[in-house]
Amino acid sequence: MRLLDRIAQHAVQHPRRLALSGAGTRLEYRELIGQIITVAEQLKHRNIRTLALDMNNGPAWALCDLAAMHAGIQLIPIPPFFSSQQVRHVLEQAGVQALISDNPVFSRSRAGDRLREESRPIEILGNSYAWIAAEGEGDRIPEGVLKVTFTSGTTGEPKGVMLGWEEMGAVVQSLADMLDVTADDRHLALMPLPVLLENICGLYAPLLCGATAIVPSLAETGMQGASRLDARVMANALVNYRATTAIFTPQTLQGLVEYLEQGGAPPVRLRFGAVGGAPVSAVLLQRAEALGLPIREGYGLSECASVTTLNTLADAKPGSVGRPLPHLRIRIAEDGEVLVAGNLFRGYLGQSGPETQNGWWRTGDIGRLDHDGFLHLTGRKRNMFITANGRNVAPEWVESELVLDPVIAQAVLFGEAKPFNVAVLLPEPGADPCQVDAAVSRINESLPDYARISYWLQADEPFSPLNGELSGTGRVKRHNVFARYQARIESLYKQEIAS
Question: Is the pTM of this model over 0.90?
């Protein structure tokens, strides 16, 4: 059953049940379906095919998303952490005809000349939102595609992943079944809704099951700008909204754990928290478990409509990213690359359908399946480098070992075509260089010689989306980190040669 049909069913069977809340708004299911239809009618009268959404989290964002689905309008969510160059690329490539914004000055500052004049605002829940015409013709996206989600572009311009309800709905239903989502659940959105993971899991999954989706502004959940976090605000939001489920990035989970370790009030109603988007430290997960937080690691790809594998509360294996969702199959290629088959995306925007080999899509991730069917990831194929001695090194493997140590907060490893490896490290607050030296020595003892760290540099500041060194989901942008520290890294190699 499609999402909107299920919402309409809930509106008939349980009209007074709370469906959507946040930013001072509370919509019961009977009200939600009415608001979806009201906004959809406004969209239809605008006579467009492709719409971009550049708004903060809130019920208005959710209604625009659901109304576009109801009206058959193709939606392009714009993440708040995208750069101006990325936003302009998205608008141009998708052929966007109009954009809805709750902050038109900010939208124009990022979109530049891709936006034109404003026309009559769109009314949502009694508030007016800017309707800004765009340069596109609306003919770039094939029929049947409901949403184009753009990747964060860690190695170049973002790619537009085309999805229909068939692909998104399969993930929603699988998650609902695996996690036993019920009408009593209250999901608190902690990530931007334009991030597909939160869109699918934080909005669609609760509404499919007749539960409550709580979507306050990002500031109300402790997010400050693209990367800063007020962990106290996030912890209080989890408590005050009585959240039963939530999704964390490694950075937000670390902030919450540190706050609770200092005596903060725990979110006692939280029954399941997922963490993903980037590699997660095993030590961080252990610290969360010691605090009683029910956190499990998963793995997702936009090309699989977000979640691909997941550890559940009842079926988990530490160190893995879980088993595949029921509608997907996974196997490992001879070179170690993870291959996925099942309900895949409809292709990248501007290209033909996904390139598969007999239905198997190459993810670009390196990993292994254990005898119980749990997936263990070791790195990205494109990040793997070959040392001057001809040995292959997956940097994520070494980095995960480094951040297991309590004195190292972040790590990025380099060594392509070099005789030894260099790491850029961010020590934990209060850790001195001698402690980091000792930690690196301990870790080197557990590594083969070709993967060891010969020298390390201290990072100038944390890697973050704000300085362009992390993606919005917490994945390291290696080329940006290397560009910043290249001179210092190269000087270490020159010194070694000179000596």
Answer: no
